[in-house]
Design goal:
Strands 4-3-14-17-18-1-19 form a 7-stranded mixed beta sheet. The chain has a 6-stranded antiparallel beta sheet with strand order 13-12-5-2-15-16, with no helix packed on it. The chain is about 20% helix and about 35% strand. A hairpin with a 6-residue loop joins strand 3 and strand 4. It has 2 domains: about 250 residues, no CATH class; about 190 residues, no CATH class. The longest helix is centred in the middle third of the chain and has 18 residues. Helix 2 packs across helix 4 and helix 3 runs antiparallel to helix 9. By secondary structure, the chain is an alpha+beta fold.
Length: about 500
Amino acid sequence: MKIRIGIVYEEPEVRVTSHRGMRLSAKGTSPITVPPEHPVMIRVERPPITTYLVCTEQPPASLPPRNWTQMTVGVVIRDGTQQFDQRENWSCLEFATLEDAQKTQRDLGEQEVYTVLRRKLHPGGSLEVWVNGKSYRFPSPLTLDSEDGRLQFLEVPYGKGFHWERREQQEYSGSFEVYAYPRGVVVVNETEMEPYLMVVNSSEMHPEAPFEVLKAQTVAARATVLATMGKHHYGEPFDLCNTDHCQVYRGLQRVQEVSKRAVEETEGEVLVFEKEIVDARYAKTCGGITEDKVYVWGGRPVPYLRSIVDTHEEPPFHPPLEDEQSARVFIDARPPAYCDLPESEVPYLGEILYRWEIRVASEELRGILREKLGEDPGEVIEIQPLKRGHSGRIYKLRIRGSRGEWVIFTELEIRRVLSRSHLPSSLFYVERTGEEWVFRGAGWGHGVGMCQVGSVGLARAGFSYDRILTHYYRGTRLVKLLNPEVER
């Protein structure tokens, strides 16, 4: 089964090379042959027309009056006599500019309407290609073929927008297309599902993790692909991107033998809840409690993505932790959980952030808010959580400054606005101490679904990969797909 991955997204230019040489071609033009090891540089000459969609899963009757268009997104998966209908009904608004779409998204957020922003790429546009100092022009998309089916992309960013953002060379196999976009080049890699999962397995989880964890990660990743096709990048020429927005896919150079084994031993396995393939979300550290999907992305409640306490012992705390006092007590108490692991014992996991504290000087916080809000808040007077989810994660927050006040909606936007990069999670409380603001929190990531560090704790306690999965995705079962076909 083939899937399409966006491996470079709106970069000003992309540089690519091949050990065996490559061929560049596009509809209506003469192809170019590039010798081995000769770099090719590609950038946008003329962008295509692109429109922008602001979409929500909320029922039409609950939405503010606007010219909403009803859309069906997603795919149907068939495998022999089995059929899984992964489609959803969305209500969408279409805009000519990104700025108008983002403003509408902010306005709807103030009314507590969860939305996603999607690009709709229209045919057209052109690319400028440089080979050996000579310039060529191709219509978009441009196809790249190599003799050995592999290409090396130079200086590819990963962790974009986060504090760990870096650039590296990444190698991929399969077929490749390059598209002109409004703000840069997009590269799409088409490949088979299982090789893709070998890369995701070793990108999302370190190969030194217990083998049962690598298998659990593989099954979750396979299910996520099939559950989110046609949704995460609706209107674009690929199924998923290679970032945290979808799943991290950082190139063949990361694949280890243990990664291959994890994919081979779980070949075709997905999680199923009733008649749907599970949208198996996961985050690095839940901090001892996971979150309901509806408090992070809105839409319909999903029974297998509900808030659970990350222990099999009788926990001292039970969700909901929606009030301020309950959240503070939980954060300060540091109750035992599978994801509370000593970093010295699992150095391959890096920072765990089961509990964390961040101190920010008042003037520095003012500068951060000025950058993120696009306005000067003046002296920051109050940061007030307005609504918390079942796990205590904040999804609506008020910032009051001497020059005005702002209400921030969604856990990711709250984490983004209050930090140069992102706060580790929105499961925190905040206090002012003199000229400092002190954030005390728990966990790393959105907290929905499988806790990746927690899965390591479960494996160390003797749990198999299937029991790890059913711990986090309650009421699900494993199903093996032999030859799945996708109806788009």
